[in-house]
Design goal:
689 residues; 32 helices; Rossmann fold; 7-stranded mixed β-sheet; alpha/beta
Length: 689
Amino acid sequence: MALPVQSNKRPKITGQKSQAMRLHRKSAYDALHSSQAGNHSPQQSSQLLNQAKRHIQQALEMAMDDGDCLNLLARIELERGLPRDAERAIYHAIDVSPENGGYWYSAGHVALAQQDYTKAQIAFRHAIEYAPKETRAEVSLAYTLAQDGQLVEAFQHYRELAKTQSQDLHIRSQVVDLASQIKADYYDIELEQDLLSFLKWQQVNLNQLGTLVCSLLEYKFDLNQQGTATDFDGIAQCPLLLAALRHTLIKSEYLEKLIMALRHELLSHSSQRGQLNKNYISLCQAIAQYGLRNEFILPATQAERDMILVLENVIDSSLRQFGCTALDVSGALLLMSMYQDWQGLHQYEKLMSFETQNWPQETYPLKLQHDELQTLSTYCFERLTPIPHERNHDVKKQYECFPYPRWQTLDYKKNINYGVALRHEFPHAKLPRYLLDDQLNILIAGCGTGRHAINVARYFNGVKVLALDISQNSLAYAQHMALSLNIDNIDFKLADLTKLPVLEKKFSIIECSGVLHHIRHYKKALSNLLNNLKPNGLIKISLYSQRTRAPVNQVRALFKQGDIQSEPHKIQVCRHAIMQSDLIDNKIGITSSDDFYSMSGTVDMLFHEYEKQYTPLMIKKLCAEFQLTFLGFSSLSHKTKREFTDFHGERADLLNLKQWDEFEEAHPHTFANMFQFYCQYRPRLRIKK
């Protein structure tokens, strides 16, 4: 973010020298600002930063204690990835003018770059004290608190900021991210109103609000194992429940039971009366939208399935009649939509052929969602390798049936050069210069439905992404989302990684996240990927932790029987049984995952056709076998690093996988979202005899 340059009482320089100093300072500022614009290649941005550095040094030669020049120098050095040099410059400026809020604001960002969150908090609080509302120090302070693990306090800060700056995407993304990590401990009407506002936001992942929303609804309805004393109408008309069903995850056993009871009551009562009560149309529609988003994860009783079959026959019979309209079947369609999509109807094509203007308001949103499903079948992709048939490849079959994940929004991130981000994450690494200067070709191997690949294409400057997957349906979802988000620097192609040849161009970076552990011949796949990596290029790998997956292994032993994926009803029933079971150790590790609340997520997490699990020592062995230099785990929290350092004391080494193995054994939930790490490929040269 841009940091303000504030005026400061400077040593007196006059005449041409003063004018020259100001011109150099302005030129430095212009070059810095231009480098941050995002429309330059990494090499051009680097040149602009060097130009800015030269100009500001010339200005400081004329006025070595000029606070504004020193502040600007700090900002330039920070942008160049040199926080220690930035720190020297900014604290020189603060020595000159200790009550300048702009200088303290810059000091806070320097401390953030060094992950010194205590120092950053002090600096931002000074910035707020000395220059209230003149900087974005309130936002930066909230961000610092979040990074330091003070989640509730950070959420309250962002929640207040959202009341006046709700259009700010950084604030929105931080609100929902923090909400995913906290729960309500009592019913708060003011929080309910705030959550209703948040659930109207766009461009952020509203699924992250699920944990907080559901915990608040549990208190609102006084839900427990026995149910609720709240009357049906009070629940059916609850704005927060309706908004939650439409826009976020329902991450609560009690709420799932409540929704199943509401659904059953709507279906039974409407079937008896022969029509759906208009007072409950919104609830019925919301449950249907909830079902479409989670792929109808809730189980139904045999009686409900029988009633749905009757509704299907009624709808099909009506659609066969001359003159039938969408309005004529809207009530039955809404009731059926709480349990399943429309594609099983014999008259599906007739139903979808009705013109837009002929659809009633209550079913039109559902029609749009089915239109999107139809669109996915129209995409075609080039094949880089032979693709096995589904009947000969269980994993491919799984992802054709259950493309994963079904996502709607990207993460919010600041645009940055990939090499700069890597240098910040791994300052010890000897990264090749081309990561900073050249346009980067990046390979995403096993991209699934494309969320991560599209994130890379959108938020890293100067990149061209090739995204590969074995599943046609997964790539179709990815392509559809890329087009809807206007992402044009990414290509999707079909490929079997175990058969991948050497492609025309080599890649600077390859990412293979959550993929190798689902490939039986993973060594062949990894070897093929490394053959397509530039010399000293980087590969990011994500693998399941054996220790973290212990509860999943227990679930598979208890509940997986035969080809469970062939019958969605079996998945629904097994999942419901898991939620009720007291036999699973650390079940919270499963039920707290977003994946547990969709059909494709449950299959991927609990009932995958094949998976291999790892320990840090196994990763060490893998790196040695493939001549990979381990650069470190990525996205580690400050808290985890601090605990690791405290655990090992003076000998702590973040690059020591044996130490990580010892630490994970003592803290087995450290890598709940998989090991994510970068390696540098440095193949040894073979000497000809």
